Amino acid sequence: MKKTIVRALSTAALLSTVYAGTALADTYKVEKGDTLSKIAGKYDTTVLAIKTSNGLKSDFLSVNQMLKITVASNMTQLSQPTTYTVVKGDALIKIANRFHVSVGELKQWNKLDTTIIHVGQRLQVSASKQTTTITTPAKKPVIPAPKPQTPTTTATGVYTVKSGDYLGKIAGKHATTVTNLKSLNKLKTDMIFVGQKLKVPVKKAAATPVKTTPPKTQAPSKPVVQKPETTDYIIKSGDTLGKIAGRYQLTIKELKELNQLSSDQIYVGQKLKVPGTTKPDSTVVDTELAVKMISSAKELIGIPYVWGGSTLSGFDCSGFIYYVANQAGMEIGRYSAEGYYDRTYYVDTPKAGDIVFFENTYKKGISHLGIYLGNNQFIHANDSGVMISNLQGAYYQAHFESFKRFY
User: Fold this and answer.
1) Could you give the 3-state DSSP secondary structure of residue 221?
2) CA 252, CA 295: separation in Å to the nearest integer?
3) Domain at 156-201, CATH from 3.10.350.10, 3.40.50.300, 2.40.37.10, 3.40.640.10
4) What is the CATH superfamily name and number for domain 11-134?
5) What pTM did the predictor assign?
6) Cα–chain-centroid distance for residue 188?
7) Which CATH architecture has domain 230-280?
8) Band of the pLDDT at 387, cuts 50, 70, 90?
C-alpha cells in the first residue's frame, strides 16, 4: 500500500543561503546499520540537506549506496519548515520523527491537548521565527579544566515496576527525570518490565529535635481504610461488562469485583460502580472485539518471550496478536508482522484496540507490532516478554510506522 506525503513547503524553500565560506562536496558509501540521521551526525549536516543533495524521497538507504554530502566550511544558516498538512496514515509521533522534533513540541506549538489529529489539519512543525545556525570556528577555545569537586551521593530506594508503568511515569512519581533514572539503573533503553526492581531517588527526612518530655499515652486508634472514589454508571441498551470496563480502563474481573457481581449478566437501568477519578476513555473502540482483545492481552503480562511462540508457554510479537485475537473471538490465521500489516487498514485517529506497527527493528521493513491501549501506551511481546510500553520512548518513536485496524 503506497502512501503519498503532502509537503506544506517545497524542498527548495527549506534550505537557506550559505552566508560565508565555500560548500565542500564529499561522497559517502552507505554501510550496514547506517541511517540518514547517523550519516548527518558524522558530517555535521542535516537529514534534509542529504535528501535534497541526493534527490531522496524517503529515508530508506541500501548498503553500498553512494551519497553526495555537502558541508559548509564556515557558517550555514538553515531554516526549518513551518507548516505541514496531515495526510491519511499520519500520527503525531510519525510527523515528529519526520521533522526531528518531539511530540511535546508539536503539541505546544499547535496548542493540542491530545495526540489526536485529522486529515487535512495544518500543523506548525517548528517554533515561530526559529533558525538554526551552525558555526565552524577556526580553532577551538582552550577551556580551563574545572576544579575537582567532592561527589555528592543521592539517597536511593527500590521501586518495583507495576503493570502500566513506564520510565516517564515513574520519574514523575519520584520527582526526577528519565535520564537520571536510566543513569541510576544503567539502562541503555526505555524498556522496562513488570516486576523489575529500579533504583529511585528518595528525599532525606529533615532531622527533628529529640523531645525530652515523654509523650502522653493514648488509646490506639483504629486504622482508617481508604475506599476508592466511585461514581454510578447507569446501564444503557447495548452495554456489556466488557464495553463498560474498557471505557473506564478496567478489566472485566476488576469491574465485577467492584460491584460484587458473580456473573456477566446486567440489565438496562442497572447502576454499576465505576472509578470516580477516571474519565471514560474516548479513544476506546466501541466494539466488543477491541474490549476483549485488551482484556485478554493484559492477563498475559509477564509471560516470557519465545521466538515463534503463540501459546501460554511464550510469545513473539506476531504470536501474541494471533493468540489474543482468537481469544477475543476473531478467527484469524498465524501470520508474521508483515502478514498482519497486509490484513489491516490505516486509521486517521487511533483508538484502543487498534494495531500499532514498527519498522526496521531487527530487520528491514515491517518487523514488530502491538495493541494500542490509548494515552500513547501499547501492549506487546518483546525480548523482555509481554509488557506495556510507551510510544514516546526514543526507540519506539524512531521505529514507529503506523496505526492500523483489522478489516
Assistant:
1) coil
2) 7
3) 3.10.350.10
4) LysM domain (3.10.350.10)
5) 0.38
6) 16
7) Roll (3.10)
8) very high
User: Given this chain, do its domains 156-201 and 230-280 carry the same CATH topology?
Assistant: yes
Residue bearing cell 550559505? 18
Cβ within 8 Å of residue 100, ≥6 positions away? 37, 47
Closest CA to 101 of 85, 123, 121: 123
Mind listing the pLDDT tens digit for each residue in 132-174?
433 334 344 445 555 555 445 568 889 988 877 778 788 888 8
Number of other residues whose CB lies within 10 A of the CB of residue 171: 18
Average pLDDT value over all residues in the chain = 77
Q: Exposed e or buried b for every residue in 82-96, given b needs 16+ CB within 10 A?
A: bebebbebbbbbebb
Percentage of the chain lying above the pLDDT 70 cut: 75
Q: What is the pLDDT of residues 91-128, one digit of tens each?
A: 888 887 788 777 778 888 888 888 888 888 998 887 76
Pick the CATH number of 296-406 from 3.20.20.80, 3.30.710.10, 3.90.1720.10, 3.40.640.10: 3.90.1720.10
- On whether the CB atoms of residues 352 and 300 are closer than 8 A, the answer is no
CB neighbourhood size of 327 (10 A): 15
Report the run of H or E that residue 168 belongs to, with start and end.
helix 167-173
Q: Where are the domains positioned within the chain? A: 11-134, 156-201, 230-280, 296-406
The CA–CA distances, whole Å, from 131 to 128, 158, 270, 347 equal 9, 44, 60, 34
> Active-site residue numbers?
317, 368, 380
